[in-house]
Amino acid sequence: MRARMIELSQSGLRVPTIAVEPDCSQKTVRCWLHRFNRSGPRPQLAEARREGRAMRARVAAPTARP
Questions:
Q1: What is the pTM of this model?
Q2: Which of 1, 8, 55, 65: disulfide with 13, CB 3.0–4.6 Å?
Q3: What domains appear along the chain, each with residue ranges and CATH number?
């Protein structure tokens, strides 16, 4: 779905038109297009790594021994 939004945008379609195909809001389309423009085609990998590290830290903190 996200790749299709980017593909449609690069083909010259405007946000209101793009939002119709995946049946999502214009705000969602803008969010993904801005994220793509800012981070490139695979931002979710970097975000997943950061989230994974943060999650491991939160889980390990209460069980850590002083």
A1: 0.59
A2: 8
A3: 2-63 (1.10.10)
